[in-house]
Design goal:
180 residues; Rossmann fold; five-stranded parallel sheet; 8 helices; 5 strands; 56% helix; globular; Shikimate_kinase_CS; nucleotide-binding; Shikimate kinase; ATP binding
Amino acid sequence: MQDLPNLILVGPMGAGKSTIGRLLAAELSREFFDSDHEIQSRCGADIPWIFDVEGEAGFRQREAQMIEELTQLEAVVLATGGGAVLREENRRRLRERGTVVYLYTTVEQQLKRVAKDRNRPLLQRPDREATLREMFELRDPLYRATADVVVRTDRRSPRAVVNEIVRRIQRLVDPFQAKA
């Protein structure tokens, strides 16, 4: 699948973008990037600190710059932050510069996966479930509008999700090969 463009993973926190992205990159012999990790690496600070100092608007600006840069690379797997789709310029870049896979997960699954995670500034509120539901209502339509493929991750191993992504992407690249 060398003729395949960049593969870009979008979805909410706890969907498995980083884990699945690493496995997918290994499966396809591609380089893997995580936009949140790249932001932290370049800033020398973690995301909660960036939120504290610059606010969400400052973080989103850094995120947009990182997406602009990373989507210009070729033949990579890119995991984006959960809020990357909030800006139209990001959605446009993602659609134009790669094949976008939405890793769909339910709020219930997100709660289980991020239960002990204190590194998520938007979840540092009393009612995590209500916060996740609000984010889902706002973001799910944006993920769907941006994605070429939607893959459910609930109660599935990362390897099973990677296998499904590879099958689904092969159909996009060569619909006849997938039927053979």
